[in-house]
Write a structure and sequence with these properties.
Keywords: Membrane, Transmembrane, Transmembrane helix. The chain is an alpha/beta fold. The protein has helices spanning 9-31, 37-67, 80-98, 102-105, 113-146, 154-183, 221-234, 250-257, 275-279, 283-292, 324-327, 337-340, 357-366, 386-393, and strands at 187-194, 205-210, 238-242, 269-272, 295-297, 301-306, 314-319, 350-353, 372-375, 399-402, 408-411, 429-436. The termini are far apart.
């Protein structure tokens, strides 16, 4: 029987990841009610950071072998430039691994340079892993098809060296493009949506949709102030924020949230939780902070949006807690559609705020009379190659979907980004929605 010491490093990392994941399951299932609030919050974040790092370790070993070990037998291996390259690769991997710990130690009103660098390296790490794997697979397929699997020669050696060089070059180019794209202000996407049973007096009502701002290690007050200025310029009747506003506790990041107090939509500003609100384990404090800025959380509840032209004309605006609250066993929270829609009948139009598209799907299965659901969460994949995974994992990906004759779902690609300050194959968006009366 093989002992743990005899296992290859990749296998040891996989075992470590399994142990951390098992500890996460145990703490969520058996320790959630026994630990105090602060301890539970830190334990969850530490476990998530350790789990991500143990998984990344397997990829980091592959990166090191592909970009460093491959060249150790070459004539340039003893040169000063190669020594600098080894240091650069090591620092790159170290920064990528450290990114997950910045949530614990480096969150303030504005991002620290170290956090921006660490998350940039994480984004480049994901892209590099993808290209190393893809080019390696192409190489193996070529060898198989050419019938050269057992042959070795100068050509094979040159192709082996070319693979990491090409992967690094592609990563550098795409990282630069992604950083440039994410540094631009969000685009304003104007959408018209017919809403069944919307009163004629509320025709052309303007709703601005924000989602996934992710205040935290790489998004701070300056970017939020820019978003608020753009929203105010649109002069919406209603502003809604559908989750993942922040990745930090309310007390720590309060100064960065202050621009939200300038939102002044005449029919109100509303908020529902996303999964990251529950990762902060600070939802109650966030609710209180948002209320101080005249932003109303919809905690499995609804409000009547009354027409400015006629007090008898209204529609129901409802919001549900994010489904992650159930997974985390977050006390007093969890998606409760029945409670959220209490008093909302099919005689009036119903608009639902639900952070995750899967929650939108579940809601429509229970209440097909919902006319419009506004969601976020997917980020449009945010960066290549994560786009494909986000597309496959969500029933609605990005943009407007018609479900049935009188129901629509709109999924925002996010107003900022999570952690990695990059966008590839997606664009940050502020959505200007005009509601049309049929």
């Amino acid at each position: 029987m093989i002992s743990f010491k005899q296992l290859p490093v990749e296998a040891k990392a996989a075992v470590a990841a399994g142990v951390v994941f098992f500890s996460m399951v145990l703490s969520r299932s058996y320790l959630a009610e026994k630990l105090d609030f602060r301890t539970r919050r830190w334990l969850l974040r530490l476990q998530m950071a350790l789990f991500a790092n143990t998984l990344m370790l397997m990829g980091s070993l592959h990166v090191w072998r592909s970009t460093v070990t491959t060249f150790t037998r070459s004539s340039a291996a003893s040169s000063f430039c190669f020594m600098l390259w080894k240091i650069a690769v090591f620092m790159f991997l170290a920064l990528a691994h450290s990114s997950f710990f910045t949530l614990l130690f480096l969150v303030a009103e504005e991002p620290y340079f170290f956090s921006l660098a660490a998350y940039t390296c994480l984004g480049a790490y994901i892209i590099l892993i993808f290209f190393l794997f893809t080019l390696g697979s192409v190489e193996q397929a070529y060898k198989f098809l050419a019938g050269r699997g057992a042959k070795a020669g100068t050509g094979n050696k040159s192709r082996t060296a070319l693979k990491p060089v090409l992967a690094v070059l592609l990563t550098v180019v795409l990282t630069a493009v992604g950083l440039l794209n994410a540094s631009q202000p969000p685009t304003v996407n104007s959408v018209e949506i017919p809403v069944h049973k919307l009163p004629s007096t509320m025709n052309n009502l303007k709703v601005v949709l924000l989602s996934d701002i992710h205040l935290g290690p790489t998004v701070g007050k300056t970017k939020l102030a820019m978003i608020v200025r753009m929203v105010k310029a649109l002069k919406p009747d209603i502003t809604v924020i559908v989750g993942d506003l922040s990745d930090a506790e309310a007390k720590i990041i309060r100064p960065a949230v202050e621009p939200l107090g300038e939102l002044d939509s005449p029919l109100g500003t509303y908020f529902v939780t996303g999964n990251h609100e529950y990762y902060t384990s600070d939802v109650s404090n966030w609710f209180e902070l948002l209320k101080s800025f005249n932003i109303q959380p919809l905690h499995n509840e609804n409000v009547k949006i009354v027409s400015p032209k006629s007090a008898s004309d209204w529609f129901c605006l409802a919001g549900v807690d994010d489904i992650e609250a159930d997974v985390l066993r977050y006390s007093g929270h969890g998606m409760d559609l029945k409670k959220a829609l209490r008093g909302c009948s099919s005689e009036h139009a119903i608009v639902l705020l639900a952070h995750q598209p899967i929650a939108a799907k579940w809601a429509l299965q229970d209440r097909p009379d919902i006319n419009l659901i506004l969601s976020g969460h997917t980020h449009g994949g945010q960066i290549f190659p994560l786009n494909a995974g986000a597309y496959l994992l969500n029933p609605f990906f990005v943009g407007l979907y018609q479900v049935g004759q009188n129901t629509f779902v709109y999924v925002s690609p996010g107003t900022m980004y999570y952690g990695i300050p990059m966008r590839l194959g997606s664009r940050a968006e502020i959505t200007e929605i005009t509601l049309r009366s049929p």
